[in-house]
């Protein structure tokens, strides 16, 4: 199954002449730039950044709920142990994320100091 999925991805990438890779910069700029986060851009009510984060949250949340239910049905009680170990691993990442958020201003200042061509 994995070979079929990867093969299909490679086939479609070549068939579309690497369209996803050619337009990756534009896609990232139009969804992650500061202008994309404002609602005043375009006709819609939702900014491109809001649409991206909402779709990612829905996909990841649904996948986690369905994944746990499928594991319990197919794997039995042993799957619950692995789900709890995954939760423990995720909880260990939280202090690192908090530190990164607290130090983000200092990191941004250092990056601007060493790379002056980066604009605000």
UniProtKB/TrEMBL annotation:
Ranges that cross the membrane: none
Pfam families: Na_Ala_symp
Name recorded for this polypeptide: Amino-acid carrier protein AlsT
Annotated Gene Ontology cellular component terms: plasma membrane
Main location: membrane
Entry's localization field: Cell membrane
Gene Ontology molecular function terms on file: amino acid:sodium symporter activity
Family: Belongs to the alanine or glycine:cation symporter (AGCS) (TC 2.A.25) family.
Entry membrane topology: Multi-pass membrane protein
Keywords from the UniProt entry: Cell membrane, Membrane, Transmembrane, Transmembrane helix, Transport
Entry superkingdom: Bacteria
Organism: Blautia wexlerae
UniProt keyword annotation of Lipid metabolism present: no
InterPro entries: Na/Ala_symport
